[in-house]
Each structure stands twice: as C-alpha cells, then as structure tokens.
C-alpha cells in the first residue's frame, strides 16, 4: 500500500474527530483556527459535551496519488526598509540555477539571510531587528520576496510576517542549522506526501487538547465541600457525599434528600425531646406540656368546626338550598296565580302576605278561637283580621287561602327557606379566629413557629373564604371563581398534639444514656437529610460537574499522540529511514568523507514525529562535536541536510549561508563541487565571504556547464547590503577584468579632459596596477589554460597539451606589458631627475587593448 492508503486503513480505528481532521489535512494541507474549533466540538460531542456534529471522515475518495508539486524557486528579495543595517530600496536577484552572493564580513549578507529564514524553512529562526546601530530599531520592516512555482509561471510575492505555504518548501542552511544537525535529535521535515500527515495530526491533537484542558480547568471549582461542611460527621449523608462521583445517580441523591411530613415531625420531636430531657424539673415541664395539650386539643376542635363549616360540602349545600328555594318560589308563584282570583290586592300570596297570614293564624288559634281550626268560619264567626261577620263568600275565600298556605309546595318552600336561613347564619356567626385560638397560637409559636404560622395563615385564608361565601349568599350571587379554597391544617395541629403527648410520655418514662444516644443519632441522620434537601441542587450540580470533568478527560485521552507516534514510527522506518541513512552515506562519499565512521541512527519518536541523530559508529555515546573538527562538523551537517532533502519528491530551492566558513582547503572544493552538482537539479543560492570558495564554485560551474549568476553586496555610506551584479575585482575572470578596466578608463579619461591632471595620474597609476593583475590572471587562465590555478589543490594535467602552442611572441608580450605596468605601479619611488610623464589616456587605452587582443588571439588560435 501507499503511505496514504496505509494511513486510511489505520484511521478506521481512530476517534471520529481525528478521521475528520485527516480528511481536512489531505484536502487542504493545513488546519485553520476555525478547523481546530470544529474538531474540538466534534471531539466533545462524542462524549456528550456538545451537540452532535456532522463528521466527514477520511475516505478512499480523498486519497489520490499526489506528489509534492512543482518546485519553488526564488527570484528576488526587495528590501525597502527596516532590516538590520541594510540600505533602503535594495533588490537582490537570484538565478534559476546557481547564484553566488559574495560580500565581505559586515557587508549585509546576514540581513538578507534573516529575511529568508523568516519566510522559508529553517531549523533555527532568528528575529529581525531594525538598525540598532543608528537608532532606527522602531521602524517596522518592509520586505518582499518574489518567487515562482514551476517553470514559466507568474511571479508570486511574499511580504514580511505573512504566511506562505509555498516558500516553506524552500530550505535555508546556515551555521546554526549545522549545529542543530550535530547536537539535536532531528525529525525529517522533508517527507514523502502522506508522512507529514502524522506530524500535522499530532499538532492538531496538541491544539485540540489545549482547548479541552482550558475548558476543563473551568470545572475545577467544586461546591461540594461547602455542603459537606454543614453535614454532621458519621451520618449516612456524610458517607454518601464522600463517595460522590461522576457515576453517582441523581435519583439516589434525591431519594436521600426526600423528607416526608412524618420525617420532619419526627426530627422536631427528637430535637424537642432531647431538650426536654435536659430540663432541671421534668415534672414541672410535664405539667406545662399537659396544659398545652389541652389547649391544642381545643384548637384542634376549633379547626375541625371551622373546616367543617367552610367545607366544600357545606358551601355547596348552602348554594344548592338557595337554588332549590328559588325554584320552589317560582312554582309557588305559579300556584298562587292559579289559586287567587283577579282583583285581589297586589302581593297577596307573597312572602309578606304569608307572614301576615301566619300572624292571623296564631291570633285565631291562641286568642280569638282557641281550640278551633283556622280559619274559623262557622255560624257567628268573625274574621280574625277585620273582625267583621263572615258571609258565605268571605268564608270561602278564607278557606281557599288556607288551602293554599297548607299545600305541600308551600310547606317545602317554607322548609327550604328555614334551612337556607340556618345555613347562612352558620357562615355569618362563624368565628374563624377566637381569643382562645389566638392565645394557643401564641403559645405554640414559642417552640413551633412554623406550625403556628401555618395555622394562622390557614385561618386567615379561611376567613376570606367565609366572607366571600357569605357575601354571595346575601347578595344572591354565584360564588366568585377566585374564592379562596379551604385550607386544612388539622393534620398539622394533630401532629403537634401527638408530638407533645410523645414528649410527655418520654419525660414520664425517662431515658438512659443509650436511649439518648439513639435519639441523638436518629436526629443527626434526619438533620443531615434536611440539610441535604436544602442544598440538593448544589450536589446535583457537583455530580454534573464531575460527569463533565470525566467526559473532558475522555476527550483529552482522545488527543494522546502515542498511537500516532507508533504508526508514524513504523511507516517512517519503512518509507524514510532506510532511504535517509543510505542517502547520508552517499552524501559522505560525494564529500570524500571516509576517515571517521559516522552514521544516521533512529532514536524513536514522540508526538507523531520520528527522530534521527548523527552518531559516531564506534563510540555512539560520545557527542560528535567533541571528536570532529569544525570543518568535519560542517561537512557532516551538509551531508545530513542533503540526505534529508532526498526523502521528498520536492526540488524546490535551497539557500546556503557561508557553507564553508569553517572548512579548510581539504573540504572547500568537495563542498563547492557538491553544491554545483545540486544546482543542476534545483535552484541553489550560496552566500559567501570567501573568495577562494567563490572561485571554486565558478570553476565547477564552468566544468559542469551550470549557469551562474553573480551577486555582490557591499557596505557603503547609505548602509550595508548594497546590491550589484558585478563581483569584486579579485573574483573576476580575465574577460570581466578587461571590461572593468575599460569602464574605469572612461572615468580617468574624463578627468584628463577636465584638466584634472593630478586626479588623472592617480587613476592611471591605479589602473596600471590593476592591469598588471589582469596580465597575471591571463597567464594563469589563458596562456596556461587553467592547468595550475592558485588555491586549487590539483593540477589539470589533462589540459597540458594545449600549452604546446606558446610562442616567444606570447612571452615577449607578457614581459613588455608587465615591465610597463610595474613602472607605474604605485609604491615605487623614482629619482626626480628620472621622472617621466604618466602615459596619457590614449596610451593607457592602447595598453588595455593590447591585453584584450593578446587574450583573444590565443583563445582564437586554440579553438
């Protein structure tokens, strides 16, 4: 399987959020802060800490065969301002193959390297400071780098402090990186596509874990100790709270905190009884409690009477009686209308009239005609009302009236009215609060304030109920919907009565120490449960907190990188390690490094990264820097750097900062050749202050046919890092030296035309000195064909045949030119009498042309 297929197979057993993270990494390359937030929520949702989120795991459709992509190459650095002592508005250019940036110490190379290390990949980054020397450290750097991705593509641009995934593929090697390869364990930053997913996934684990730990820390504060401090020690509640955890069931806490009315009464009884047992005169207390018992009994009876009178049945009965009376009254009205003829006085048969009739009945039966039926209408009888003699019609009417009054309907109506009157009088005469009840409540309140308050509140509410009912009955209205319901507190009063009676019983029976201990323990248990009930929500919150804390711990476990590291290690060993170690040995061979046995060894992994280290084969416990010289150390570091590059299919550019600053001649040329060879495959940029190394690079570039771009940085009055395409005089080949002499001759000729003779002579003598050096370089480079070159350790014997054509005229030309140049070389003091005039501009130009013609003639001849 490919690396990606291996990762896909392995990912099936990973947490859902990691599978989603792998998909995002494969598709996007990096994870944004928003991605980390999403992945954190997915991780939390798997443990019930967040709402369920949609998860899109890595699948086969996400793992195409991908490579590193087109190589990245640098085009230029533009420094506008703000970096070290670099001059403003400077552009340093780079070629597509080999670029050599030469500059003396202090010329500004380090400033450009620091810019590159901030934009590109490097083992050790360095901060960029302003021009501290001249006090401009506050100016913000303004820098840009232009680069290309692949051949013929449009230019891209990086600006200071921005992130660019392309430039991170360009690598920088400098002295600090060299030390890193030797002294630190190093992970392979260049890897085949797919292996970097382990690093990135491990990085995501760290980011998600950081967020989870931050949220978990907010759950550290527990409120449980505050509750435990209130709970009596040794009780079941205290033991229960000591074991509260994320696994505790809330219903178990709620059951323990649930106190029935009986439990509350029992606690109150125990607390009072324990106090009673401490009384100085128990018998006197018994008497007081007995008196209280009688009063509470009377209170209970009063409450029973009040609640019976105001019960729903009593109220309902009164309103039903009134309704029946109204109904019977309507029936009586209809009967009256049918019974009495027209023409009678208004109201006859009505309530007033009936009262009048009953009065007449009593007068007749009790005084006028005792023992006689009413109405008495026999012969000679008189009317009981008007006391007139009764004629036949009057007697008939009186009998008719009596029949009406004596009818069953009228009797029922009278009965209903009597019943309703009595029922209404009950509500009217009822005293919900009596003086006796009030006094009893005052006494109860001393020890049982809650009970007294409950009874007082109930009586007050029931009084409102009585008034509301009575008003509705009096005004012949329906009962209001907001009529207070009956509040019954008889049970409270009876419980109090039982408690007092139990206290009396306990006092009369007395109690030994064991009984008191049992009572105390029972009271403690009930008291603990009561306290728990009052703080139940705090305990439930604590259980929920511990559940969340435990869930966060499980989420954090899902961010551990052990499994990632193990898989990274196994895959890296299979795909990278062998190639890395082989490449390192090949690089040592290319650098002719074979006198000290050194190898790249695996040293295990951590957090998704597999590490390697350079060790001495025969002494693995000894640190390399203690054995190898500076030059050898640099050679080994460069070999490790190139070996690391070999592990990835990426030919992006590489930058070297003084790669041979510590190397002696033994390594200088092998390193130069290695860099030039690499520039045939990728862009190579070399910063150096060593002219000999520069010449070695030029030599191998010529031999291997590599295009070379020269860049020269200098320190001038405007600052360091001033860029030019021309190398310094000492590094120029003959052809460019001749071009430089021609350019300088123009300035000397101008001085002569301006009649500045002193200035001209000074320039001319300087140019003759340079001309002599050019002839020397021409002898080495042209006449001898580069067979022997200064500072080069070998002799190019394969080129010796070409010097067979050297003629006496060639040598004569050299002798004449060198003699003339030496005449005007600065530093020779001639006698005043022998002083000859300095050759004029035309003669100087001719002498320069003689060198050019001499070089052209030999090269043309040898072609």
From TrEMBL:
<keyword id="KW-0175">Coiled coil</keyword>
<protein>
    <submittedName>
        <fullName>AAA family ATPase</fullName>
    </submittedName>
</protein>
<dbReference type="Pfam" id="PF13166">
    <property type="entry name" value="AAA_13"/>
</dbReference>
<dbReference type="Pfam" id="PF13476">
    <property type="entry name" value="AAA_23"/>
</dbReference>
<dbReference type="InterPro" id="IPR038729">
    <property type="entry name" value="Rad50/SbcC_AAA"/>
</dbReference>
<feature type="coiled-coil region">
    <location>
        <begin position="253"/>
        <end position="280"/>
    </location>
</feature>
<feature type="coiled-coil region">
    <location>
        <begin position="399"/>
        <end position="447"/>
    </location>
</feature>
<dbReference type="GO" id="GO:0016887">
    <property type="term" value="F:ATP hydrolysis activity"/>
</dbReference>
<dbReference type="GO" id="GO:0006302">
    <property type="term" value="P:double-strand break repair"/>
</dbReference>
<feature type="domain" description="Rad50/SbcC-type AAA">
    <location>
        <begin position="85"/>
        <end position="283"/>
    </location>
</feature>
<dbReference type="InterPro" id="IPR026866">
    <property type="entry name" value="CR006_AAA"/>
</dbReference>
<feature type="domain" description="Protein CR006 P-loop">
    <location>
        <begin position="379"/>
        <end position="699"/>
    </location>
</feature>
<dbReference type="GO" id="GO:0000731">
    <property type="term" value="P:DNA synthesis involved in DNA repair"/>
</dbReference>
<dbReference type="InterPro" id="IPR027417">
    <property type="entry name" value="P-loop_NTPase"/>
</dbReference>
